[in-house]
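The methods section describes the discrete structure representation at length, but only in general terms. An entry of this sort, consisting of the sequence and the corresponding backbone structure tokens, reads as follows.
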Amino acid sequence: MGIWYVVFFLLLPVCSSSDLQSGQVMNMDTFLGLIKELESTKPDFSAQEIAQQLVSPSFNPSKFLSAEQASLTLALLGHKVVALEDKDWQEQGVVLAPDGSTVAIKPLLEAVLSGWKVDCKSKNLQEEDHQGTGNNARHPTSLAMSLGLGFANSELSLEAALDVPNGCWDSISTPKTFKLSGAPSRHDITLAYLNGALDGTLLREMLINKTQKMSSLLQSYYWGRPAKSAFRRQEFQDLLKDGQLEDEIRRGIKCYKDHADHHNAEPITEEQMNSIASVAAKDFEQQYLDCPAVIPRCMWEAKPYKGTPTLLKPPLPHVYIHHTYEPSRPCVSFQECAADMRSMQRFHQEDRGWDDIGYSFVAGSDGYLYEGRGWHHVGAHTKGHNSVGYGISFIGDFTSSVPDTRILNLVRDGFLKWTLRSGYILPNYTIQGHRQVVNTSCPGDALFQEITRWEHFTKESQV
């Protein structure tokens, strides 16, 4: 569309990778430690008051924290995407959460205070660095406004879908730098930014009619088994009313336009505003909220594929459901599920002699899907049928019980529908249990009976 570029698109600073090495472990434990330290100096402060303190332009962390802690705090509050000299992209101001997701801290804190809707009275709207130098530039103050302006100010047409890049940490045990898989298509709207905005919104909901410390709030949200944060997309969807997201995005564009008029922003018509809001809301829902969260191979520390993979030719006609049997116990945390993925890959590569873990994707009981061979490589999950279908396995032995309802919904209502919409499977695809095409008890009696009730399940057996 190319309209109304000024105000929002910032010039991304180019840095060498050595300039960005803080040496600090950038995980949620580190952020929690800073919060606890700050709370020790402000023992009467509630979670909202701590958040207000941190995002205040006048906040000086050196008054309350050591020099090293103060420096780290400022780094966490400065969310941005930077271009490196080697054409890679790095995201700063993010941490690795216990559930395996990456979360931007600043949008989290802002959402704790103001939620995801538009606050047109916010002073931040008038504090932007309109020259785009980056020093004083701030994100818009809400998720709805970020989405609206991300689409309004992009050089991409509205037909170009929202691309929300994820990335990989340099280390899972001691994460320090986070490299993105590519540049965001809509300003700095990354997966970590969206995770932070949703987490802050849900934390705010947890505080309704309550007074709670920020440290205990974070612990109850991120350190559960499974963690509440793993279900952020579903929980946020439950908060939305029909048409509400589109309405708020429209309000955000109008609000920002009104504040930016004196900066010679290109005019935007009511019709354009409505079109942008409609597309932005739809894209966000389809490319993020409806899209199942998948832990990429780098995050569970997969070993490289042995040899050269054979490419699939999607869309495929079949989906085959499995259970792992071994490991037999469902994993309920990122640490457990990632360890199970490594164990299965080791068994498949070393004992079975396969090139990689056999499954296309694996569902943990922690609320996430895990990337196995993925969308494009032929797996080793269903003998004789690997090139015509995806193999999805649930971690655990489901002979006498089924996975948690939320995990079943994640695969049936999230993953499969998104896979169809994305063109990886045919509209008339079939679902079958492993036992229907291979002489095996997989996926277990209980789970097999469950999938017989799924749409697209077929009773045909080839054994």
Q: What stands out?
A: Residues 298-451 form a domain with the Lysozyme-like fold (CATH 3.40.80.10). Confidence is low (pLDDT under 50) at residues 1-21, 126-139. The first strand starts at residue 14 and ends at 15. The two ends are 55 Å apart (CA to CA).
